[in-house]
Amino acid sequence: PPFYDSEQEVTEPRQGDGRSRTAMTLYEGKYPGGEVGFCLDILMDQCFLYTNGRGNLIPGWTVIMCGKKTSFVTLHHNVTQVLGTSHVASAEFGPGNLTRWFLARSW
User: Fold this and answer.
1) Exposed, middle or buried, 40 (CB in 10 Å: 0-12/13-18/19+)?
2) Which of 44, 95, 102, 105 is the most exposed place for a label (fewest CB within 10 A)?
3) Dihedral (C-alpha) 27, 42, 36, 59: value to the nearest 10 degrees?
């Protein structure tokens, strides 16, 4: 699910169309830093897991999926600044009413 930064974001109707949030508990929907914080924590975990124990990264690609475009834009900007444009790729997937954004990065 999309992760929100505050209890208010989890429980209030969506901005814009006023639809209610998906059925989730507060613990499922809230994460420190919201979706960006969750994705950055995943990135840090992947950096740790993709090392060979000596601090050398094992080459490869990893992907994160974002449910909010604002999160994707923030993550894309930050990851591109750290890794450089040649190590970052992105895609948008929206076959129906939902759109998701994907951020891939190589080591």
Assistant:
1) middle
2) 95
3) -170
